[in-house]
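Re: that backbone. Tokens:
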């Protein structure tokens, strides 16, 4: 099932070139362009404040967006380049690629956990840690999964859940070419402390025997 794709509202930009770009910046906008998808390139502009907020939120370059332009049908895009001021590090121009529904694209997909209520490791007090709350997958733009699911219903303390154990959505492929850890189920601190105490006690029991052997 496709996940919720965020809307990105932009405006058409009159004219191209340095003069038109400077005019857009004076009006609090960032000039940009949309290309690809079998359509002619289109000059656009986006609110500087809105763009800066999204850039600072992270992963703007790998987030599929639903572009909205007044008077046109919505279409899907992904950012392909953000030019920045060399001194202030603020956006000065932005490029978007228009996507067809069949286009393959790399996106970060959230991880959902199931089976926590019956997990033997969690019942023993184990602590579940999501090492990767999101996993980057190559997916089809028209069929983006809402999440991928990991099942911990049979996971014991000390075990890991890796990507090889996850059933990926149809057509999706992992971008990392190795088996990596998504979640770990570690022992609670109380069990770790108990184990340390037992080790100390064992060392204490061995000490007299070692001393006696040394005296002989």
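Recovered sequence:
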């Amino acid at each position: 099932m496709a996940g919720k794709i965020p809307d990105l509202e932009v405006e058409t930009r009159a004219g191209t070139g340095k003069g038109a770009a400077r005019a857009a910046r004076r009006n609090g906008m960032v000039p940009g362009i949309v290309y690809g998808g079998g359509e002619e390139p289109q000059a656009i502009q986006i609110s500087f404040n809105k763009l800066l907020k999204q850039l600072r939120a992270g992963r703007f370059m790998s987030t599929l967006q639903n572009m909205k332009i007044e008077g046109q049908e919505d279409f899907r895009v992904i950012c392909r380049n953000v030019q920045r001021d060399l001194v202030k590090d603020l956006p000065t121009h932005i490029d978007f690629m228009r996507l067809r529904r069949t286009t393959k694209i790399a996106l970060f997909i959230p991880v959902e956990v199931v089976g926590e209520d019956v997990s033997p490791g969690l019942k023993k007090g184990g602590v579940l840690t999501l090492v990767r709350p999101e996993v980057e997958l190559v997916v089809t733009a028209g069929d983006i999964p809402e999440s991928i699911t990991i099942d911990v219903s049979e996971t014991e303390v000390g075990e890991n859940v890796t990507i090889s154990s996850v059933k990926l959505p149809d057509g999706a492929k992992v971008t990392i070419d190795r088996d990596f850890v998504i979640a770990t189920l570690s022992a609670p601190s109380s069990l770790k402390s108990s184990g340390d105490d037992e080790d100390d006690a064992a060392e204490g029991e061995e000490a007299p025997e070692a001393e006696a052997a040394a005296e002989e």
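The longest helix spans residues 189-215. The mean pLDDT is 86.
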